[in-house]
Amino acid sequence: MSLNRDFIGHEAPLGEPLEVTRGDIRRFATAIGDDNPACHDRAAAQALGYADVVAPPTFLIVASTGGSLGGFIRDPELGLNYAMVVHGEQSFAFHRPVMAGDVLNTVARIQDIRAVGRNELLTLVVEVTSNGEPVATVTNTLVSRGTAAPKQA
Amino acid sequence: MPGYADVEVGTELAAQDFALTRADLVRYAGASGDFNVIHWNERTAKAVGLPNVIAHGMLTMATAGRVVTDWVGDPGRVVSYGVRFSRPVVVEDDDTGTTLTVAGVVEAKHDDGTVTVALTATVGGEKVLMAAKAVVRLS
Lengths: 153, 139
Fold this sequence. Notes:
heterodimer, A: Thiol Ester Dehydrase, Chain A, 6-stranded antiparallel beta sheet, elongated, B: alpha+beta, 6 strands, 36% strand
């Protein structure tokens, strides 16, 4: 079934604010095989001029999708079947790096839903802030495989 | 860290090979919170038309990004990073995993002390990322 176009322009926080701990950053860095001391050790991060351990750039996917695509992306009314979803595009534009101690808030907006052949592309733009200060803009394009309505003859 | 003055358009970053196994996918699922079944369940992956379990696109992106952060030495210096996922990275149930090869080259130097790095990420000679670019601030 096709995605519900009424959701284009829909805007809302994606879940609760994310309190970023050193453990979260270490666990993520370990999972991507990144042994940079600045991601694991506070003193090493401070030697680079940061207040606390620094997250790898793609860590923000955790905040910007509510982990496993939470929030209104899971609204049955939208009609997204998660097993049919693959990732199309992803970008991060940073005002500053994410660090342990941040409390990340998100406002996500469905910018577009459009059919490309038999697939549909959903573009989600997430503004991430901490204490009201901008941290990053995260843009995520999901591919919903085979859900586009067949072309009318 | 490479100095801005020492880097030129065409400067190559050290290429790296990364092995991605099913264990890596499970570990990434836990750390990221992305438990989509196509990343760990062969039965479901095949039922929805995939050749087998595929890696999280974000794991591929994160792994490719290590070539940039390893080069610059400071993950906080990445100003932007974007990719298009052009092919799924299929991960068979074996002990060797799938080899992701990542290379990078400085594509542009900007007046504000940043450079654009273009990344090439391949599996078996096929590109799995397109338009993979990171902007990093050098000293």
